[in-house]
Amino acid sequence: MKRQRLVILAALFLPLASIGGESVLVSDSAHKAQSPEIAVGADGSINIVWIDQDPAPQRHDTGGHEHSHMSTTNLYFARSTDGGGSFSAPTRVNANEGDVWGFSVSKPRVVVGNNGTIHVFYPANDVNPVNGKPEAVALYTRSIDKGKSFAAPQRLNTMARTDASHLVHGGLTHAHVFGTLAVGADESVYALWIDTRDMSQEGDSGKAFMAISRDDGKTWDKDFELFPADVCPCCQITAYVADDGALYVGSRQVDGKFRDSTVAISRDGGRSFAPRKRIVGSRWEIAGCPLKPTSVVAHGKHVYAAYYTGGENPQGAYFVSSTDGGDHWSQPKLLHEGAMLSDAPVLSLSDGKLFAFWHAKVTDGPRRVFASMSDDEGLSFSAPVELPLPDGAAQLPVVAARGDGGVQLAWQQDATVRTMRWPATPAAPQVADAK
After folding, report:
1. Is the dihedral of CA 312, 344, 242, 263 positive or negative?
2. Over the stretch 49-68, which tens digit does the pLDDT of each residue have?
3. Is the pTM of this model over 0.85?
């Protein structure tokens, strides 16, 4: 019989053992950890923050409001200087014990400037000085000594003078949360969050507010309104600064009965933005907040975004791209064909390659983290690969580019935070002969 060459595409990435990468525990296993975020410094350091609850159950009587001002949540930080092989002991970032307001979709953010400054944004609990009610505020802190200490936090939002407690959940009069952080090559720092200060007058959607520091986080300009009162109030904003200095903002916009992922772009350091562009295919009609962010990365004229949508069939994690700087977008591509569930997609660019990670269920078992890679500007992706992680629920991945062309991944593993290096080079296709 004529011989046929069958290319087996199962081995799409180098086996993790062959490059020495292994899952590394970052958080204290005696605590309940969730919602990691990650940043890799220019010096190769790996910096991870996460929300951590202390193990004393009597401290968590929140009166039915898990994320209210009565919570005892903290923000922790750990750093690796050996490529992710080991991490420093977790240290608390927030100045006041238990004042962090956050969970998996309103989590802290960490970025590192080219000069090594570590910038952190996190939502925290405060009291509104006008009405004396609890309010969740947008806080910023930084470290200039490689994470050994963090400065006293600065509140970035202007406090509201109204009371929207009948609209804001969790017993709060207002919330300045679901935020993000980005840093440019010139050490400008951009903080953005969803804001309820005008919610009682202008409906039950949020606005997006922004504050900018032009001096590496030392001082901040007064916050200002970026998007009007049509922002999905519980879908965390994302931000990304490309190599050319362009600032990309991912958010979800309320338009009547639809809640669509959008991208907005500033090419002048956040001073002005082009109108938001809706990037979805079929629109998602949903009567409520889906709690879903939109991940964005870019280089040159190529812009990439990933998001969850219930508007497509099947629903799940989708990818889109633009080749003209965000003016026009491709048709959505499902990242995980055949999955029972796929969600929480994140993107990273490293050495010309585009990486996508998400969590999914392919059986009735727990969520697991999957990866795919594109080396042709997002035109095609390798088949999804389940990461070789410990048993249990693995979810909410986050990713940052490494200087070696790979990426560093962190995720929530049950009630811990773990991390690993993921390689840049796919394995050569295996070739088998058949008669």
Report:
1. positive
2. 999 975 444 444 444 444 44
3. yes
